[in-house]
Amino acid sequence: MSWQILDTNSIWLKEFACALRRLTPTRNWCPEIRNFGCFEDWQKSVCLSDPNIEMIQFPLQRGYGRPPLAQVLPTGKMISHRMLRGCTTPELSPLMCTAPFYAPVAERWPGPVIYYLTDLTRKYAGMNEARILALDHRMCRIARAVCPNSSRIADYLCAEAGCDRAKVTVIPNATRGQNLLPAPLLSPAAPPEDLADLPRPIVGVIGNLASNMDWMLIADAVNKTSHVSWAFVGPTDARIQDANEHRAREILLGRGGRIRFLGRRKYGELRDYARTFDVALLPYKKHEPTYSGSATRFYEHLAACRPMLASRGFHELLSKEPLLKLVDTGDEIVSALDYLKGQGFSDGCEELRWRASQEGTWDVRARALMAAATQSDQAKVA
């Protein structure tokens, strides 16, 4: 028996699958979107070292989840047949689906189904909300356990997609277990080489530096903090459609001096940057689907123990004080930085964050999902 995970394309799904693999055998399916995928029949195993996971790549037709292809192509049948070919005990092998588009696969799967939803998919740009709702309804009906990664997604599934609340276990995003510190970090760690010459104090932002960031807020804060350095760690190639937000990011990219953009770094290296910041900033812009999700970088910073400031762009973070401090404006960021400077950039919550981080790992999340699946099996037997 092995768990089938469909799919593991994103980094957080790879991390989750890697943690789950430490508990049970898994087969990690990773579709490759192709223009003529419906005419191709191949698959290949790809082994990653960071995270350490083996994936099975296979072709998937571009646009498979949208009309008219969704009505014409038997994608669900094709994927389920592919997965069943290498599964010796499908009736015992759980299938974990990570998107509503796999409802046709879930309905054909002979074993238990777990719906692990990490985004409010119907709010993606260009999605037909009524159609996604219908797919979510189908997933909730067939799944034995439904595991969204936020309470807002859970509420949506129960209120609108007809999910039985008894099936639901909220499983937030997380960080790697090896990112945890042996003791609380009470002062910044030594910086990586590419930040060694940047004057302190350093306010740091990690992750995808794209449209889910409030660049107007960031620019306002930067303009009002001339004696603070800013480090941005992550890619900046994603397009920002809002003209004002785009312009704000472009201006910051060209500033230089105490404002440094380091570009993309390996996921496993982000902890070294998080630990070296005097203050971490989580400047999310409030819009969907970001607002209803789970903030992965919060758990990265939680493990680093350093003080955090966060905007109100993530519903999940609104209940995280005093692990972080909520800020709404550039002036509030300035006030928070002034206060922290007076405290030697220690807000007194380092140990609290350290203790909380012990329960915020992918291994903890994987055990919670397996427990939810096991409980649903026991309930069905009873």
Quick gist of this model?
With 382 residues, the chain is of the alpha/beta class.
Secondary-structure class: alpha/beta
Q: Which range best describes the helical content: under 10%, 10-25%, 25-40%, 40-55%, 55-70% or over 70%?
A: 25-40%
CATH architecture of the largest domain: 3-Layer(aba) Sandwich
The number of domains:
2
Order of helices and strands: EHEEEHHEHEHEHEHEHEHEHEEHHH
Rg measurement, Å: 22 Å
- Number of E-type strands: 13
The description of the largest β-sheet is: 7 strands, mixed
Average pLDDT across residues?
94
Helix count from the secondary structure assignment: 13
The CATH homologous superfamily of the largest domain: Glycogen Phosphorylase B
Residue fraction in strands: 15-25%
> Unreliable stretches, pLDDT < 50, 5 or more residues?
none
Task: Enter the CATH topology name of the largest domain.
Answer: Rossmann fold
- CA-CA gap between termini: 23 Å
Tell me, briefly, the overall form: globular
The CATH class label of the largest domain is: Alpha Beta
Strand order of the largest sheet: 3-4-2-1-5-6-7
